[in-house]
């Protein structure tokens, strides 16, 4: 008796993963690993760099973004791998527990998705206030706490209708968790959702364009014209490159997911998508979370110093003097009076 006949006698054969599915699982696992480790490292570095407290407003917003990415990765990684292995997004829990967990999962998944968008927007707003109103006291810890709270509360509030619209149903022999279509509720909800997402995407682009215009048109009192122009050109190039990097990374990783939401109006349980696009919708948000923490050393001076402190604490004592000398040199270079644009580049975006 060969192996095929033996499997047929013992029961239905189990699903065998294809090479493409194995590659998908490996890519998701690698991206999730770097996302979790990198974003956890961001929180450790910023908190340890400030003596156990977060005193810098920009650091607080970056930690908030890292927390949103960590929660999004933890929540969606298991669901994504399960859908790849089983071939479809099946809901294993049944009965009342299945209904409750399905609705909570829908709210949590989409709320974390929106919180990542709003966290990036709050960072842009804080940078805008710092650059355009450098001498004012608009950016305070109270304002930052309110922005962070509104990010999470607004995300949960927007997707709270999923507590009612979520449903578990048997479709084509499978138990599925999905958003059911109720015309009086679903259509207005999706319109509001699209309006919010479009506003976030457009506002993010406009804010950074205003920041660049402000930096290119600023005047630094007390400096000769040629020296001012030379310093401004150098700072403006750095800021432009960093803004372009942030916007390209954000739009390229989240745009496929947003486009999928834009076409999710009809009363359909499934949307026919090309396998490559389906993979990009699932994988690119993980890639965004994996890349963000590792570009912080390029954009953020405090993160570079914090990483230096963290590495010095883990090395031998004979290397501590070298680290202290490097830190003191960095501190002296940062203590020189610089215009707002250069402070902007050193603080991170």
From TrEMBL:
Chain ranges passing through the membrane: 23-47, 59-84, 104-125, 137-159, 194-216, 239-257, 277-299
One GO-annotated biological process of the protein: neuropeptide signaling pathway
One GO MF term attached to the UniProt entry: neuropeptide receptor activity
Coiled-coil intervals: none
GO CC terms, sorted: plasma membrane
Localization terms from the record: Membrane
Residue span(s) of domain G-protein coupled receptors family 1 profile: 38-296
The keyword 4Fe-4S is assigned to this record: no
Alphabetical keyword list: G-protein coupled receptor, Membrane, Receptor, Transducer, Transmembrane, Transmembrane helix
Membrane topology classification: Multi-pass membrane protein
Major localisation: membrane
Pfam families: 7tm_1 (PF00001)
InterPro entries xref list: GPCR_Rhodpsn, GPCR_Rhodpsn_7TM
Alphabetized PANTHER family for the sequence: G-PROTEIN COUPLED RECEPTOR, G-PROTEIN COUPLED RECEPTOR 83
Protein name: G-protein coupled receptors family 1 profile domain-containing protein
Native source organism of the sequence: Nematostella vectensis (Starlet sea anemone)
């Amino acid at each position: 008796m060969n192996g095929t006949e033996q499997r047929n006698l013992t029961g239905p054969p189990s699903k065998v993963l294809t090479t493409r599915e194995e590659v998908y699982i490996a890519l998701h696992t690698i991206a999730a690993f770097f996302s979790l480790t990198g974003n956890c490292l961001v929180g450790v570095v910023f908190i340890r760099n400030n003596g156990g407290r977060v005193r810098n407003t920009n650091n607080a917003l970056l930690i908030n973004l890292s927390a949103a990415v960590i929660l999004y990765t933890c929540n969606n990684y298991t669901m994504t791998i399960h859908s790849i292995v089983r071939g479809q997004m099946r809901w294993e829990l049944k009965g009342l527990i299945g209904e409750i967990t399905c609705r909570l999962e829908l709210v949590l998944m989409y709320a974390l998705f929106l919180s990542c968008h709003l966290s990036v927007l709050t960072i842009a707003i804080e940078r805008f206030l710092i650059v355009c109103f450098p001498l004012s006291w608009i950016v305070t810890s109270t304002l930052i706490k309110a922005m962070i709270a509104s990010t999470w509360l607004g995300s949960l509030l927007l997707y709270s209708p999923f507590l009612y619209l979520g449903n578990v149903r048997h479709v084509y022999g499978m138990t599925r968790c999905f958003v059911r279509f109720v015309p009086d509720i679903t259509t207005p909800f999706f319109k509001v959702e699209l309006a919010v997402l479009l506003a976030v995407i457009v506002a993010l682009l406009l804010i950074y364009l205003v920041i660049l215009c402000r930096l290119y048109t600023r005047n630094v009192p007390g400096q000769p014209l040629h020296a001012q122009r030379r310093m401004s050109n150098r700072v403006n190039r750095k800021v432009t490159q960093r803004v372009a990097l942030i916007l390209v990374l954000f739009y390229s990783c989240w745009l496929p997911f947003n486009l999928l939401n834009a076409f999710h109006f009809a009363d359909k349980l499934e949307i026919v998508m090309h396998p490559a696009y389906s993979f990009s919708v699932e994988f690119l948000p993980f890639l965004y979370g994996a890349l963000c923490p590792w570009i912080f050393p390029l954009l953020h001076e405090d993160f570079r110093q914090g990483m230096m402190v963290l590495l010095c604490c883990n090395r031998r004592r004979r290397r501590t003097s070298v680290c202290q000398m490097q830190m003191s040199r960095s501190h002296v270079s940062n203590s020189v009076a610089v215009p707002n644009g250069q402070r902007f580049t050193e603080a991170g975006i």
